[in-house]
Known about the structure:
By secondary structure, the chain is an alpha/beta fold.
Amino acid sequence: MDRIMWGVAWPGVVGRLNSFHPLDDAIAMSRKGSDFAGLAVAMTTPFEAGQVDEALLRAQVEFQIAAGTNCLVPVGTTGESPTLTHEEHERVISAVVQATAGRVKVMPGTGSNSTAEALRLTKWAAREGADAALLVAPYYNKPTQEGFYRHYKAVAEAVDIPICVYNIPGRTGKNIEPETIARLAEIPNITMVKEATGSLDQASQILVGTDLTVLSGDDSLTLPLLSVGGEGIISVVANIVPGDMLELVKAFQRGDAAAARAMHCKLFPLCRDMLGLSTNPIPVKAAMALLGRDTGELRLPMTVLNVDEMSSLKRTLTNYGLL
């Protein structure tokens, strides 16, 4: 009774912090974006001689589907969307939707610092058959909280697919405050938050005050966020080890605390030592190249790892058992 009573006020917290018991079905399904729970992968955009390599992109789609990934997230931060032309951005969305052919969900990045551009890209994704859209907070402009609200409201009301608010102040320069996210939660098709503030307090406030599904935006915080009611991860490291990240999430979902902690401890050095080498997606693209799954090519202003960083990456992958 206590767990159910607390679960209504704070879904996902009580009964997870210590024993990781799964939620009752009614509580687990009460959040707006629960159909996107689990593992989503923030895909890289492969390049060959300066052009988007669509054949390799499709191969990456197949790799993720075979691994059991629940959702693919192309053209986000990891997909180097700021360096893509508008036509390339649209083409990558279309290519991934077509390659998945309904086998997994697709939630492309369609955010922009311009509301009009975010609206155009989100409409494109909806027309092409995307299952949802991930919209990063408008960057560089540093909007007021009212500006954030009106930006997301304008896009959400123009499409009928679910919207995931992507809050990453380290990239955008300003936090979308929990009070603003609570206002956005009242809009029917705003259903998720990709939480990348690094603050469990902020994530908890969103979980307490809204019925939104919260997805981790930081690989190393996946387990902590799940423990307070998050429902999954939009992962970078799963570009190379989707099975391990999926096992962490599944272990938690089935109430196996020991297995979830073991996978967290296994993944943590990889998350810290690989992803911490340089700005995302530089390290993960280098790792994928070493593993024969990407060319490793980047577009300026992104630059490759230096010799020392590459040596460190090779040690990290070797220690993990990948090389």
